[in-house]
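FAQ: What does the model actually see?

It sees only this:
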Amino acid sequence: MGIVTGYLSQLVSSGIKLLVGGSAVSSSNPLPVQNVNASPIDRSSTITTGGAAQVAMAALSTRKAYFLQNVSSEIMWGSFTGTAAPNAAGSFPIQPNGVIRSTQVCETTALSIYGETTGKVFTAWEM
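And it is asked to produce this:
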């Protein structure tokens, strides 16, 4: 316990140093603030070719949140790790009227989506 106590008292007396771009945080070098309010981008569409995967949302390194609802009467399949396919590793089912969404930890990779029938609709938004 002595070593832990020593490190703890050292931390308390010297404080935690935050750096931005290699320089200490200060009033002239503040932490960057990210606007949590973002305008949604509509990615809603339909299955363009039944039985083939398509990209519902391209990769976006600045994505903070997304929402997708399968508004069709058939199961769709999604994947953030590769090409979506029914019952395949890395793919997940999106039930009719089912929703996938993220508002905290958010994937920034592309969303591949698969539907069996051409013309089936999904609603999608990303911020």
